[in-house]
Amino acid sequence: NDPKQMDNIVVGSRNNANIYLHDVARVIDTVEERAQEAYTNGVRGAMIIVQKQSGANSVNIAKQVMNSLPKLQKALPSDVRLGVIMDTSDNITRTINSLTETVLFALLFVVIVVFLFLGRWRATVIICITIPLSLIASFIYLAITGNSLNIISLSSLSIAIGMVVDDAIVVLENVTTHIERGSEPKQAAVHGTNEVAISVTASTLTMFAVFFPLTMITGMTGVLFKQLGWMMCIIMFISLVVSLT
């Protein structure tokens, strides 16, 4: 540990003479120069970056870190203070909350628009039943695959809400037409559904043709859009089944 002792370390020999460290270098007892410095409110400090592993939930990790700070603070000297400079989970939380509000507003607007065009609350309720049934299927998919409710999944729900009622509207309007012509409700439901079943199925398959290719994307792009593709396909399939039954 003594620089003078290190000066006398033999690093080689030449012409039967030892070559010491002080012959080729200068030994100084000092500290390494800082490559970076961190300051908080003008006071020098130390910065620690907590980075999640791939696949981990950023929001949950941030909560665990925040819950651990009081315990860490107690173990530190009294003149040392812990603080959070940047928390990226805040942006994620705000985005998810914003998308959640968008989904709820979209649901409300769909109900209002359907009622304004049909003019009957009973028909509106029947059609809007397809929305929760279809969305529940998407939540089951998330639970089975182990995915969380994130920006991608909420975006797919927002996109799908306006689409899931299309098939139900077409079927219900055709059934209503048969009832107005004097058919019994049960008979009108069977004949009215059969008449538009092929057309409604073809319309849903066109949506499949748009979103199903997203499920086959690989790489980083696939990580972003594969979940969107599967959720849209599942939601559209369930809405078709519900509208025909």
From TrEMBL:
One of its GO terms (molecular function) is xenobiotic transmembrane transporter activity. One of its GO terms (cellular component) is plasma membrane. Pfam families: ACR_tran. Keywords: Membrane, Transmembrane, Transmembrane helix. SUPFAM superfamilies: Multidrug efflux transporter AcrB transmembrane domain (SSF82866). The chain crosses the membrane at residues 99-118, 125-144, 196-217, 223-244. InterPro entries: AcrB_DN_DC_subdom, Acrflvin-R. This is Multidrug resistance protein MdtC. It comes from termite gut metagenome.
